[in-house]
Amino acid sequence: MDPRRIEREIRQCRLDKSSGVEIFIPEESNMLHLKASFPGPAATPYEGGKFVLNIELPNDYPFKAPKVKFDTRVYHPNVSSQTGAICLDILKDAWSPVLTLKTVVISIQSLLFDPVPDDPQDAEVANHYRSNRESFNAKAREWTRIYADPNTSLDMAGLDPGAITRLVEMGFGRKDVIGALRKVNGNEEQAVDALLNGL
Question: Which residue numbers are catalytic?
């Protein structure tokens, strides 16, 4: 691993304000674990959302591809709706050391704009995309609204989206739910107690 290269890539990304792409180190001591965020592309069901990625760099980066998955739940044929895994050639056999982390994030953003349903990560979502585009777009927009709210999407990172959804459906405010789950390390029952007791 070349820490200078990683720092340079993060710095270059920070200097480019126009892309909306952010890359940062969530734990200062570990340069092999990064997070990135980007805005949903305009004129898509993902517009208005802020999407967070989890990036794990191998020790021999940039000679091996980073492992990247969505922290934000996203309804898309090339993204697992369960795990956030992404089907993208540059994350597998088309990786090259000349690519940068910013290139990876922008490629994932482009994938949201232009899905490839014939090479799906989530076959069920791909079938929905192919069979009823209007219904697919409505569901993708709904997930963007629920999971990719730019005010809370970073706070949600690492929490179980299902727990957030269940507690919101119980009538608690989304921000309160996220705050409660954060306080109790994601324990859903303890979060309910905290919300009921106004902690």
Answer: 87
